[in-house]
Amino acid sequence: MTAEAPPGGALIVFAREPVPGQVKTRLIPALGAAGATRLYRHLLDIALRAAGATPTASRRLWCAGAPPDGGRCARLAHQHGLTWRHQPAGDLGARMAAALTATLAENDRAILIGSDCPDYSPDYLTAAFAALERCDAVLGPAADGGYVLIGLRRPAPELFAGIHWSTGTVLEETRTALQRLGLTWTELPTLRDLDRPDDLADFPHLLNTYRRLD
Questions:
Q1: What is the CATH classification number for the domain harbouring 38?
Q2: Model pTM?
Q3: Which residue, 167, 191, 19, 51, is CA-closest to 118?
């Protein structure tokens, strides 16, 4: 099935400045700090390429840990046709809520993705925008119990409160919150993300490419 993205939507990519020791820290025991950073840059490139190839009104990279001038994040955003902003302070939920609220003040739909999933594609992101034509929200479940994508038609900061981030209960807690708030939603096919050393077993080509050399 091919979905056609409606005009007017905005796509948000959440990322972190790719500095050794500050990205993919849970993979450092398996890959080393340099290898984990190289892998993160690869994953971020996948997300940005998919974003850049998705037909939508605007594309934005919200970066954490970047210097005032935006650093590498700003350069990557420019390279892939995205604008960029600094992520605000707060936990992951507060930062996502802020980004979506700000974006939905200017757009009728907003999709937010991270930079940990090797399987993002323009078709997947386009399907998310199409889903928001008939539902209040859309989720892209992750195989580990989280999600790789969330989209909304209107701000819902309560949706991100009280979630136990970086655990296997994130998706189920979010479903419960959506139901509690009376929001309709649909879910896309489940994708895998890459956060922990165990996840590398699903991506042997990446393990072989980025394994630590020391």
A1: 3.90.550.10
A2: 0.93
A3: 191
213 domain residue, yes or no: no
Q: Is the per-residue pLDDT at 212 higher than 70?
A: no
pLDDT at 3 over 70: no
